[in-house]
Design a protein that fits this description.
5-stranded mixed β-barrel; 8-stranded mixed β-sheet; 561 residues; single chain; 22% strand; alpha+beta
Length: 561
Amino acid sequence: MSEQEQQKSAAAPAAEPSSQQIDAVTNQMQDVVLDSEGNPLSKKALKKLEKEREKEKKKQERLEREATERAAREAAEGDCAADKYGKAEINMSKTQTNTKWTEIKNLSTAMAGQTVNIQARVQNSRPTGNKMCFLVLREGTATVQGLVDANRENIISKKMVKYANSIPSESIVSITAEVTVPKEPVKSCTIGNVELTVNSLFVISEVTTVLPFSIEDASRSEEDYEKDPTLNKVLLDTRLNSRVVDLRTITNNAIFKIQAAVGLLFREYLTNQNFTEIHSPKIIGAASEGGSNVFQISYFKRSAYLAQSPQLYKQACIAADFGRVYEIGPVFRAENANTYRHLTEYVGLDLECSFREHYHEVMYMIGGMFLYIFKNLESRWAHELEIIRQQYPSEPVRIDDKPLCLEFKDAIALLRKHGEEIGDLDDFSTPQERRLGELVKMEYGADFYMLDKFPLGIRPFYTMPDPNNPDYSNSYDFFLRGEEIMSGAQRIHDPALLTERIKAQEIDPATLADYIKGFEYGCPPHAGGGIGLERVVMFFLGIHNIRNVSLFPRDPKRVEP
């Protein structure tokens, strides 16, 4: 080869490897096993690794073989309970039977040996081996333990036990069971002296998503968390964001039974006192209480307001000769107060009553109404109170046969006596209000009391001035455990004096022309009050945040769910 050809050959690029050569090298590299430092394993290490892989392979083959054999045995054995459990068809009201249903709260030892039909939620399940599964069944404020037991040959199968344990917590089931008496009471359930031995079990509504928190965690008391700080604590915002689940706890169920009871007793007492229930509008043309804490809304081509109270309409009914009226309905307050006791929407219990000689006729009647409510809650709703007090411990309200009444001046003197600085005509701050409650309980032994003769300057425009001292008024507040639950007064029924007081509070009388006109037609002297339902329930139960006793609370930061 000439020198020129050699140079040309040297300059030519080397031939690229074929795809077969690349695959061969790749396969060789894949077979190389590296240690933790990235170096190839020695022959001895490779041999050990191969033995371990072979061992694992045989283990997996054995497990698969055992699973196959077990499935074959179960298939051969059959399922003696195949028609006694499963997921029921969607209830579309297709048929109606004469099945007799029993509520969990009504179970008792007197029913031992009886077969009952129950629909309830599965709060949780706990298997014991593959032959037994315990269920906590919940309905309203009552829980009971159920037992699915495959030791009952030819009645309950292992498959049924397995199915029971697989039911998602909070699913609703329909069961048929025999009532039995356990050897020892079941302390984890409210109905602990009986147990349900399950004969059939069908899921009628299955939980299909992850719960935001467990019912057990949402049912714990502060004492539980103090004893065991590792427990999951469900925060208030988490509860309220998933209120539907939160309301399922037996405590919350009981709280809203108490709330309903307060409304019932309010109606019961006033109906017996010849009151008429009314329903006033909540969209109004002028602020019912004056001031700026009112929600303004667009009402077609003009503005309107959400009622701060039914005050004007209660009085209109008195002017219309209804004599005695009450109402239970929503109240709206545009107060930007993010406190433990304020809501922007709450349930008002309002009443108004004409009197013959003195507004104290009405004030003491209302005091008697509260005593009636408190006493009946303790006697007629003892079961619910027992449940609530397990999670929110409190003592029963201390009351006498006659409500305690103090004057505002007495309260100021009592506060000053114990070091509080407050002016004669100053309204109480929240800490002073609570401090006054402590002092009243210490001096008089009462959790509930009435405070009369408030300064005129801190009351609404329709409040009647005190005829003996123009700085004060014929007005009163009621307190429970040191916190206000009701505000009331004698109302001004004279149109001239009413107009004067409206102007004194810098309100344009023209905006209240219809209200004033009602008194120009003649109106009897009258008094009344407005009560916050949630506050009554909150303080009666000793619960420390009003949102816990409001079904779906509304405050400056919350308008959902």
